[in-house]
Amino acid sequence: ACSGNTDQNGQSSTEQPPAENSSSADAMNNESSAPTDSSNTPDNEDESLKVLVAYFSATGTTEGVAKHIANGLNAELYEIVPEQPYSSADLDWNDNDSRSTIEMNDPNARPDISGSVENMEQYDVVFIGYPIWWYDAPRIVSTFMESYDFSGKTIVPFCTSGGSGIGSSASNLEKLTSNAEWLDGQRLNGSDSQDTVMEWVNSLGLDK
Ligand SMILES: Cc1cc2nc3c(=O)[nH]c(=O)nc-3n(C[C@H](O)[C@H](O)[C@H](O)COP(=O)(O)O)c2cc1C
Q1: ipTM above 0.90, yes or no
Q2: Polar residues bias located where (predicted)?
Q3: What b-and-e string marks burial along 58-94, b requiring 16 or more CB atoms within 10 Å of the CB?
Q4: Quick check: CB of 160 below 6 Å from ligand 1?
């Protein structure tokens, strides 16, 4: 369901990640301001279904989408906060030695998370949102997936990006969990309205 110019093999740190309709670095940040949307209709009729919307967002784009989902479902929101915050130098994908480049070149990197989800066992459904970094999920999302027991839960991955699709980022995360039901992932735009985001959420049939 995700569109975009995905190149699963383009992992060279000297190569700039693709950006939508542009090759400029600016385009990768062109969704950083999510508009607010006043419509806030709870769509989750099933009171017994407990939903958590967990997300990592370095520059706020994924956070906007996560809030639309949490508002729309009356769900709990949890931000994955890095123990060591990412500076803009850390996020420089043009720098081979930047923290993000180094982490993404190492599939085993597991940046520490500050804090934790209280009572993860109470949730039936966990949305997990993240920005695409080098065609993949940031390694701190791997830290998150390995920190909890997701067995018996439904997991719904979603991402934002400068244009890349969700690619194999979700299936890579799925490998870090066991006995969870992973639904297809979805790439969303930071500029998507709450209604647009909820159209996708409602199509998942979570309350069935
Ligand atoms: C280190 C780094 C690598 C990125 N790699 C990609 C990429 O491979 N493909 C892409 O479309 N966008 C890439 N982006 C852009 C982000 O995915 C995009 O700006 C995202 O919406 C940011 O979400 P956030 O504000 O929640 O952190 C990258 C951004 C950073 C900082």
Answers
A1: yes
A2: 4-42
A3: bbebbbbbbbbbbbbbebbebbbebeeebeeebbebe
A4: yes
